[in-house]
Amino acid sequence: MTRVFSGVKPTGHLTLGNYLGAIRQWAAVDQHRSDALFCVVDLHALTVDHDPARVRRLSRQAATLLLAAGLDPQLCTLFVQSHVDEHARLSYVLECVATDGEMRRMIQYKEKAARERERGGSVRLSLLTYPVLMAADILAYGTDEVPVGDDQTQHVELARDLAVRFNQRYGHTFVVPKATRPPVASRVMNLQDPMSKMGKSDDSGSGIVYLLDEPDVVRKKVMRAVTDSGRDVVYDPEGRPGVANLLEILAACTGGNPGALGGVYESYGALKKDTADAVVEVLKPVQARHKELCADPVYVEGVLRDGAEKARAMARPTVDAAYRAIGLLEPSSDPVAEPVLNAAR
Ligand code: AMP
Ligand code: TRP
Question: Which residues participate in the annotated binding site for L-tryptophan?
Answer without folding.
Answer: 137
